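stage 2 :: seqdesign
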């Protein structure tokens, strides 16, 4: 009898280690949601490059009289058994395909990618999950909640497969997929790691769907959201390691939300920030998301751990310092600090500069500039795999009224060189430019035909007057229109200037007064008259002290 009691007590304790002890405000019985019958079946099997791929269906939940059933693509190395595994959540929650399944399986993982129960998908349910951050009268019946249940059952599906080691299951995803990965790490304690492209919690601080969270309506939404469906809400109660790789200028998931989410996490976190990048990534940072799962689930050498930045006075200098630790197998090859002028606003369009760091042993140091305004900084190291490892942002006030900030908001694309067009422009999906080898600087310029030419976004320091300058030339005197347009919160602006350019490279410019705002944008266009061709080069956007 005593042994039975001890066994029962151990079972209760183990259950408490797997499932949260306190009732969840939306999902009070996660174990019950996860353990309903799967009724799983394989509808198709095929192979690619030594990877076995299965199209599967499994039961998610009953929504009243409606059975919600999930379609997925499950892949694994041929002959796999007790392999590490993860669920991949598609960017935008697009329909499942086998691209990332194969990518993960070639690393030795078993991978599941599902169609969320969205209208028109192969899964049933028909919920508008990826249309916005809807809470509804009952958060447990919200579109987002149905996605949660589908993923809970997805983990149960992986646990049921002999190819999978159920003690090494993780989750990864991009954008909406990163949102769900962050959310599920807090909800499903069976997950042993999470790794995200973009996507985060703390959306009540502002996001692309509901940017005006300070209005009466927005504040009411934010208060409910923070206590119900926000992905960061449950992170303090779990120790699961989680990673985020993102651009500093991501339009969808803003830096304040990500920083708050990281600070709330109860387990180890990892961060990689790419300065001036929006909702896109370089191939090495794409790979880093899966490299993180390698370290947590497949026994690969751990990522470096960075200390937060500390500020150190050295005479009249202000130094930013951070250090790192990592296993000897992971070699650090470089260190730098990224810096962006301005306060807590303009997250989508603010420019960042990169300063090289001095490395002594494992300590990294950068002398910080004086500035007439505050700025945000983040330290980083890069390893031999070209993986980037960053510290959280820190706001610095190294104020000197005479030290006017200098930064070029077009530095990522304004010279039209091959590496910019094939890297920053192409990977973001920005419009490319025809080029000419007749260049003002570098090897090539943009060749603009008749009509309106558009370019990647212009970054700027909100609240400072801004001047966009460039060099132009054509075969004969031609009138060309320069245009800057965009918004400062709810205020739209358009500035135009007509200039005459000729056969020699001519410096032209257009100026705009900017305003401090949370939601901003600035676009640059050039209008070329019919029958004309104009060359454009060395586009720069810099803050100016006064507008003439």
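stage 2 :: out
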């Amino acid at each position: 009898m005593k042994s039975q009691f001890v066994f029962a007590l151990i079972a209760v304790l183990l259950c408490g280690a797997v499932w949260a002890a306190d009732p969840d405000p939306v999902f009070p019985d996660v174990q019950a949601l996860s353990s309903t019958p799967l009724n799983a079946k394989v509808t198709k099997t095929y192979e690619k490059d030594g990877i076995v791929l299965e199209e599967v269906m499994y039961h998610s939940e009953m929504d009243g009289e409606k059975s919600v059933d999930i379609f997925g693509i499950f892949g694994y190395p041929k002959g796999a058994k007790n392999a590490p595994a993860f669920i991949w959540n598609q960017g935008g929650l697009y329909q499942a395909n086998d691209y990332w399944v194969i990518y993960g399986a070639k690393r030795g993982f078993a991978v599941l990618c599902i169609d969320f129960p969205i209208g028109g998908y192969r899964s049933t349910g028909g919920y508008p999950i990826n249309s916005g951050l809807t809470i509804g009268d009952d958060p447990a019946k919200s579109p987002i909640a149905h996605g949660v249940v589908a993923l809970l059952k997805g983990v149960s599906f992986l646990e049921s497969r002999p190819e999978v080691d159920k003690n090494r299951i993780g989750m990864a995803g991009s954008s909406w997929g990163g949102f769900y990965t962050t959310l599920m790490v807090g909800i499903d304690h069976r997950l042993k790691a999470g790794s995200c492209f973009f996507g985060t919690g703390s959306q009540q601080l502002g996001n692309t769907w509901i940017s005006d969270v300070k209005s009466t309506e927005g504040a009411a939404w934010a208060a409910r959201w923070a206590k119900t469906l926000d992905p960061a809400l449950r992170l303090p109660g779990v120790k699961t390691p989680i990673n985020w790789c993102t651009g500093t200028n991501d339009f969808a998931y803003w830096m304040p939300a990500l920083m708050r989410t990281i600070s709330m996490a109860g387990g180890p976190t990892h961060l990689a920030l790419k300065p001036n990048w929006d909702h896109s990534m370089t191939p090495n940072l794409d790979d880093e998301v899966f490299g993180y799962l390698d370290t947590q689930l497949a026994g690969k050498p751990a990522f470096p751990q960075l200390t937060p930045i500390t500020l150190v006075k050295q005479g009249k200098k202000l130094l930013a310092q951070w250090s790192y630790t990592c296993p000897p197998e992971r070699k650090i090859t470089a260190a730098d600090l990224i810096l962006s002028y301005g306060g807590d606003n303009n997250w989508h369009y603010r420019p960042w500069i990169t300063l090289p760091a001095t490395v002594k042993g494992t300590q990294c140091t950068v002398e910080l500039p004086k500035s007439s305004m505050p700025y945000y900084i983040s330290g980083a190291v890069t390893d031999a795999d070209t993986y980037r490892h960053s510290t959280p942002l820190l706001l610095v006030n190294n104020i000197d009224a005479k030290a006017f900030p200098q930064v070029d908001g077009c530095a990522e694309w304004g010279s039209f060189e091959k590496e910019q067009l094939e890297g920053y422009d192409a990977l973001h999906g920005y419009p490319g430019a025809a080029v000419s080898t007749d260049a003002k600087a570098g090897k090539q310029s943009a060749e603009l035909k008749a009509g309106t030419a558009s370019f990647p976004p212009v970054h700027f320091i909100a609240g400072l007057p801004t001047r966009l300058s460039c060099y132009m030339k054509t075969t004969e005197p031609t009138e060309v229109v320069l245009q800057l347009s965009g918004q400062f919160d709810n205020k739209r602006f358009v500035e135009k200037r007509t200039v005459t350019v000729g056969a020699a490279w001519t410096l032209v410019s257009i100026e705009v007064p900017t305003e401090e705002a949370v939601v901003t944008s600035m676009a640059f266009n050039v209008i070329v008259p019919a029958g004309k061709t104009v060359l454009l080069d060395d586009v720069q956007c810099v803050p100016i002290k006064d507008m003439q």
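stage 3 :: structure notes
- The first strand starts at residue 41 and ends at 48.
- The chain has nine helices and 28 strands.
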